[in-house]
Amino acid sequence: MKTITPKDISTVDLQRYLQTAVGPRPIAMASTVDADGRPNLSPFSFFNLFSANPPILVFSASRRVRDNSLKHTLFNVQATMQVVINVVNYEMVQQTSLSSTEYKDGVNEFVKSGLTMIPSEIVKPFRIKESPVQFECAVQEIIPLGNEGGAGNLVICEVLKMHISEEVLDENGNIDQHKIDLVARMGSNWYTRANEGMFEVEKPLTTLGVGVDALPKGVVESGVFSGNDLGVLGNIEQIPTDEEVAEFVASNSEVQELVKQGNQSEKFKKAKKYLEENNVPLAWKTILAK
């Protein structure tokens, strides 16, 4: 396994490793104004949600690695302590990329990118009309993490008002994860589109999973089950009883034959097929069959 000590490599190389390993990263399109009210727009992928009460978003306006310079966004939030964070969907990803061009101070990236400015209700920075969700924020604090190129400046933002496009809502008024069609940054020039890779994993909040350690000896070491398989098996709330297992075996001739042959590997493969069908109880009963 390749091992890296950050201080032993250049910041350029370190940043490349970090950005290609930590992702996908959501994108904050940060809209700000300077002290004279001139608009600025810039995307940041060092960004996430950190609290719901109070509602806090954080992005990092890092120093440029090549020359240690600071971004206009940072100067603007320092001057006004306000920002609008706009989320980025697939329909605006190319315009988002264009807005990252390092234009001179005072150039309006809304105009350059072709994105539409609309007034905010509380703060001075403008919202992006094309963005499906816009957060008007007060900047609570700016935390510098260093003085050299690549050092971040954490911009702590409290959400004062959210604006959500009706087009991305479901019948219950919640944001539909397919309709919003978010994109995120990877390393180098790569992005990812959430719609093309979404899947559901049930949260173990209402039940107490038995854990992987509750599986019979030999299951983990069998090589039949992946880590994901083991996680699903361990998330069951109650292991089937001996009576339930016996009843299942009595009604399943294929499992009966596998038990008769004493072929553990084939029995585990049968259990894996049940997992692929999302039938966890039958997978457990097959594993326990005897």
TrEMBL record:
Gene3D superfamilies: Electron Transport, Fmn-binding Protein, Chain A. Keywords: Flavoprotein, FMN. The keyword Flavoprotein applies. InterPro entries: Flavin_Rdtase-like_dom, Split_barrel_FMN-bd. GO terms for molecular function: FMN binding; oxidoreductase activity, acting on the CH-NH group of donors, NAD or NADP as acceptor. Residues 22-176 form the Flavin reductase like domain. The keyword Metal-binding does not apply. Its cofactor is FMN. PANTHER family: FLAVIN REDUCTASE LIKE DOMAIN-CONTAINING PROTEIN (PTHR33798:SF5), FLAVOPROTEIN OXYGENASE (PTHR33798). Belongs to the flavoredoxin family. This is NADH-FMN oxidoreductase RutF, flavin reductase (DIM6/NTAB) family. It comes from Myroides phaeus.
